Amino acid sequence: MAWAILFVAGLFEIGWAVGLKYTQGFTKLWPTIGTGVSLVLSMGLLGWAVKTLPLGTAYAVWTGIGAVGTAILGMLLFQEPATAARLTCIGLIVAGIVGLKFFANG
C-alpha cells in the first residue's frame, strides 16, 4: 500500500511542478491555488509513505516520478525538445526508479 501512496504522491508532484508554469509567477489565482493544493497533497502523501518505506528510497522514487512526468509533460504541453539524448536520460531515471522499487528494502 505504501508504494501505491508513493506513486500517487509522485503524480501530485508532477501536478505542482507543471502547475508552476501556469501560475505565471504566482500571478494567476486558480493555477496558484491548484499548484499549492497539489504541493500539499504530494508532501503529505510522501510523509505517509515514509512511515513504512525507507526514506532514501521513497524520496528518490518520488523525485524520479516527478522528474520523468514533468519532463514528458514539458515536451507534450510546452514543446520542449524530445531529443534522443533527453529521452535516453529519462529512460535512465525510469530504470533507477524501477531498480529502487524492486531492490530496496520495504
Report on the architecture of this protein.
The protein has 4 helices and no strands. The chain is mainly α and 106 residues long. Helix 1 runs antiparallel to helix 2, helix 1 crosses helix 3 and helix 3 runs antiparallel to helix 4.
Notable traits:
mainly alpha, flat, 106 residues
Concise account of the structure shown:
The protein has helices at residues 2-23, 29-49, 55-78, 84-103. With 106 residues, the protein is mostly helical. Helix 1 (2-23) crosses helix 3 (55-78).
Secondary-structure blueprint:
Elements lengths: L1 H22 L5 H21 L5 H24 L5 H20 L3
Mean pLDDT: 95
Low-confidence stretches: none
Element-level helix/strand string: HHHH
Strand fraction band? under 5%
Shape: flat
Separation, N- and C-terminal Cα atoms: 11 Å
Number of helix segments? 4
Helix content: over 70%
Radius of gyration: 15 Å
